[in-house]
Amino acid sequence: MTAIEDSRTRPRTFPTGFVWGTATAAYQIEGAVDTDGRGPSIWDTFCRVPGAVARGESGEFACDHYHRWQEDVGLMKDLGAGAYRFSVAWPRVLPDGRGPVNRRGLDFYRRLVDALREGGIEPYVTLYHWDLPQALEDLGGWRVRDTAERFADYAEVMYDALGESVSNWITLNEPYCSAIVGYGEGRHAPGAKEGHGALASAHHLLLGHGLAVGRLREMARSGQQIGVTLNMSPTVPVTSSPQDVQAARRMDLLVNRQFTEPLFGGAYAADMAETFGRISGFSFRRDGDLEIVGRPVDFLGVNYYYRLHVEAAPYEEADPVRRSAFDLGVRTVTPEDARTSGLGWVVEPEGLYETLVGLTTRYPDLPPVYITENGYGDDGALEDTGRIDYLRDHLTATREAMTAGADVRGYFCWSLLDNFEWARGYSARFGLVHVDYDTQARTPKASFRWMRDFIADPVVTTPVTARPATTGPVDILVAGTPRGERWGPGPLSQAAEEST
Known about the structure:
Number of domains: 1
Strand order of the largest sheet: 2-3-4-5-6-7-10-11
Shape: globular
Enzyme class: hydrolase
CATH architecture: Alpha-Beta Barrel
Number of helices: 16
Catalytic activity: Hydrolysis of terminal, non-reducing beta-D-glucosyl residues with release of beta-D-glucose
Oligomer: single chain
Region (Disordered): 479-500
Family: Belongs to the glycosyl hydrolase 1 family.
Number of strands: 15
Distance between the termini: 42 Å
Protein name: Beta-glucosidase
Largest sheet: 8 strands, parallel, barrel
Helix content: 25-40%
Low-confidence stretches: 1-7, 465-499
CATH class: Alpha Beta
CATH superfamily: Glycosidases
Strand content: 15-25%
């Protein structure tokens, strides 16, 4: 065995202090949507639209975590998790998105945080995981600048309530899904299919993030961390044709660089005007916004599920002025030999390696990274060997990326519980724990036991074996990167399919 081969196969453990946790989101697990003064969110409204969600399902009951949270904290303790990433339901705390605070809603999160800390589990609080108060949507939602200001007010309310007990804050979860899937594609709440409105929403989400960072920085104690979570996947053209390469670049802009460049690159992506100039004049941008959006954060959360394989396709709308922001002349495809999950999602752990190393290469001042979501969807089988294989391979890819220089500090498995999976309803299950939605009984799956053992002894031994990313040698230059420099087999992208 050569020295190189030995370095690729000898066991590697994760470093001491590496954070192990699970993740959930409020609307997906809490239920109790009409309880203790909670106001309606855009997802409550969207779920009532005929055909919007599979089988007409909603998060009305979900996992009833609002009443069963003590049992769920017990499951985390049994798992050996040292951290729990959860989101706060904005309309549970501020029923109208602004104005009087609902103390009963705040008390729920106070009890949860206290129980977590008593159990030795560090809370990671996400302020926004897609459940905008409907009252703010009625005033324009994320299309309007005022919502960013209201988000900063809400962040201040939450810090006032939990700042003594919570040291890790995440402003946004996956602004791509909120802005583009929600306001551009229409597959998520609020169900709009707009051009300018979707791009404005993306900008105002980032602005709200920056404003919230400013408020939290003013209040934070020493050692507290503030971050943001983006969903990412490398975007790969299916052929080396100029049409497919440009399609991959457009997808990359829409779902990735639109967010990473203002956050970590200090500029708007250079090809925004070329790609979207016919549908928007970007009048929502104001002098000084970039400085607010780009305020330094202490960590980046990365949600990774798969790579995107894309090809050029006809535009849905012939008139470019009338196109939605999601109408890019791009189609995602599944490679013929691809390994897939129970949902048909392509399983490519090397894409996580490419994502982590690629971010480190592109942004020299990138803060430390936490993998804030990574998981496998299936039909809910208790002997979920597919999920075990997925987790093992992606943890291996994470460790390999760390060896290559990526500064990764933690891993949160999606998800602790089977839950309401947005437009898919309850058919897709991502949990380490099975939930019987009729009885609310929780049953740990085989993957729960596997993950518990891994957390106790986090060693990987098998290297990630890369499979071809394209049908031919394609050298994609990332916008803003000097000519001749590569960033993996293709630019990074966030998944166009909804992630969790």
